[in-house]
Amino acid sequence: QVQLQEFGGGLVQAGGSLRLSCAASGRTFSTYAMGWFRQAPGKERDFVAAMTWSGSSTSYADSVKGRFTISRDNAKNTVYLQMNSLKPEDTAVYYCAADTTMAIIKLSRPRYWGSGTQVTVSS
User: Fold this and answer.
1) Given a cut of 90, is residue 69 above it in pLDDT?
2) CA 52, 90, 45, 74 torsion: positive or negative?
């Protein structure tokens, strides 16, 4: 029902910023909670951030609180991850995800996934 594609990854110096975008296609994008995950080679895919369909509630992993901000523009069918004060340990492939509720995204495996975008933070 929903297809997701991430954009905006790249190479950035430590302390810098990137904004990732996730373009959604399909029906009823605005009714889905959205989230971001990340995965480094050989490591588990970890939760980063999530937002309710309305944008009224957000959740963040402790490792990114105060540095990352998730947002969405339903008119553009796009969800964003603003990443500030980037650290080398933020290096990973970042995936956007969607499901019916934020709780499902946080605690379960979301139904829909993008293909990922590489973020590399150099020291």
Assistant:
1) yes
2) positive
